[in-house]
Amino acid sequence: MMFWGMLSMQDALSVTSEQILYFHDYLMMVMGIILCAVGYFLGFVLFSKTYSTSIVADHLVESVWTILPIIVLIFLVYPSIYLLYLIDESSVDFLCTLKVVGHQWYWSYKMDGLLSFEIDSYMDADGAVRLMDVDNRVVIPAQEYIRALITSADVLHSWALPSLGLKMDAVPGRLNQFVFMVMMNSIVHGQCSEICGVNHSFMPIVLEAVSVSDLL
């Protein structure tokens, strides 16, 4: 869910974004523990009357503050690499192929597979969500894998949907690919996330995920 003035992350609507939120919360927990531990020892050094300068030269202490960060990094690297592989996974069977082309300053879409359509999507200034609605929404099946092919017709763009954990560059002359799935019926908002010209802020993205039975 997204609302005006929110400071938190958007609710997860895909497995990828859900895992990104889990990793963010885990990372904040580890950072909080480190902050408390470092703050405690810093206060001990500054204000303790029994503090001895010989502590900083102690071999055991030096070993601890060398080995401990390595252990912490191991606990951070594993979930990070797991998440990277999850994002790059594209070997699943997909139902449709969505072709996305960035233009100055709108998006064009072509869908092949279960659905078949070709539309241009411009910002709708009078839409329900200010500066984030479009005249033609992209309708996709919910709870089904969709392959997206991204490119650009002119300059660099970036097709970004935070609630799905997606951000893929649209590069002229190059085709980028990823597979995604929207977990529930919903309307997903996004924006171009690459500065592409004077109207960069006016090319939103809107996907509408509906049940497959409603599409047939």
From TrEMBL:
Pfam families: COX2 (PF00116), COX2_TM (PF02790). Its main location: membrane. It catalyses: 4 Fe(II)-[cytochrome c] + O2 + 8 H(+)(in) = 4 Fe(III)-[cytochrome c] + 2 H2O + 4 H(+)(out). Residues 93-216 form the Cytochrome oxidase subunit II copper A binding domain. GO terms for biological process: ATP synthesis coupled electron transport. It is found in: Membrane; Mitochondrion inner membrane. GO terms for cellular component: mitochondrial inner membrane. Its cofactor is Cu cation. GO terms for molecular function: copper ion binding; cytochrome-c oxidase activity. InterPro entries: CcO_II, CcO_II-like_C, Copper_CuA, Cupredoxin, Cyt_c_oxidase_su2_TM_dom, Cyt_c_oxidase_su2_TM_sf. Binds a copper A center. Belongs to the cytochrome c oxidase subunit 2 family. This is Cytochrome c oxidase subunit 2. It comes from Rotaria rotatoria.
